[in-house]
Structures are given as structure tokens and as C-alpha cells.
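quick q for whoever's on today - can somebody do inverse folding on this one?? i tried earlier but teh output was garbage lol. C-alpha cells:
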């Protein structure tokens, strides 16, 4: 049984992590009952896509270049807040949400 949903930003990865009651990662996806939820998936993909734009990844190099400006940071914060709100409503207290998304970059 999944007990915790952890939210974390990592390059080129969906930011929803499912953990069992012992703290082990089960999957990097929506909870099973929301696996096909397009609204939730689209909300978190918007977060991941914007975060991924903070990196250069091509044949010659891979590196973190950072958030370009305060407006982009605020956009990311708004996208995160929106996605977390959708998740919170849809799980309706069934899981603990651990939000480890740090906007201090």
C-alpha cells in the first residue's frame, strides 16, 4: 500500500514519486487510481517541462544553467501550486504529500 507521495524536481523526470509505508520508492508516476488522469498528468508535466528548460542537454554538453529570471521562477511556483492543489483534491487525504520541491535555485 502506498503511503506517501513525494514531490521532487529532477531533470527529465516526472516529479511525482510513490513510496510504500517503509519508505521505499514504488514508482515515479501518479497513484494507481489516478494513472489515467490527464488533468493531473498535464499539470505536473508543465512543472517538469519548465524545470527541464533550466538545463542544457545536447550532444556536446549537459549542465544546469538555472532559472533565467524571477518571472520564470514565479511561473514555476504557480504551476507547482496548481498541480499540488489538483493532487490534494483528487487524493482526498488518502496519501501523505511530501513536497520537497525547493525553489531556491
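ok took a stab at it. sequence:
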Amino acid at each position: 500500500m502506498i503511503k506517501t507521495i513525494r514531490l521532487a524536481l529532477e531533470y527529465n523526470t516526472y516529479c511525482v514519486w510513490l513510496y510504500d509505508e517503509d519508505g521505499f520508492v514504488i514508482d515515479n508516476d501518479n497513484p494507481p487510481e489516478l494513472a489515467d488522469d490527464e488533468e493531473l498528468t498535464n499539470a505536473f508535466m508543465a512543472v517538469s517541462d519548465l524545470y527541464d528548460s533550466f538545463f542544457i542537454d545536447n550532444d556536446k554538453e549537459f549542465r544546469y544553467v538555472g532559472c533565467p529570471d524571477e518571472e520564470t521562477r514565479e511561473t514555476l511556483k504557480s504551476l507547482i501550486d496548481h498541480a499540488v492543489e489538483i493532487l490534494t483534491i483528487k487524493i482526498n487525504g488518502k496519501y501523505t504529500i511530501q513536497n520537497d520541491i525547493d525553489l531556491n535555485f
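fwiw The chain has one domain: 2-99. also The two ends are 34 Å apart (CA to CA). so keep that in mind when u check it
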